[in-house]
Amino acid sequence: MISDEQLNELRLSGERVRVVRDDLESNDVIGIVVAWDAEQVIFRRRNRRVVKLSRSYSYQLQSEPRTSPLDT
Fold it and tell me: Which domain of life is it from (predicted)?
């Protein structure tokens, strides 16, 4: 699970983040961290829609190569 400190750094930087939910790259969510609580993270996608995602997913910078959650 991603920590509050890491989420705050991502929110302040405004950098795009990739949320890897499973092995399929097409199921990834890319956006900017807006807010979070103990269980969920709120993302703003490129089309300005807001989505809530679980904190248990794998969070990676979009600028870095994608790694599967099963690899870790």
Answer: Bacteria
> What are the strands, taking DSSP E only, across the chain?
17-20, 29-36, 40-45, 50-54, 58-61
pTM exceeds 0.70:
yes
- Those residues whose C-beta lies under 8 Å from the C-beta of residue 11, and which sit 6 or more positions away, are 32, 33, 34, 35
Distance CA 62, CA 59 (A): 9
- Tell me the per-residue pLDDT of 20-61, one tens digit each, with 9 for 90 and over: 999 899 999 999 999 999 999 999 999 999 999 999 999 999
CA dist 31 and 44 (Å) reads 5
Measured from the Cβ of residue 50, the count of other Cβ atoms closer than 10 Å reads: 11
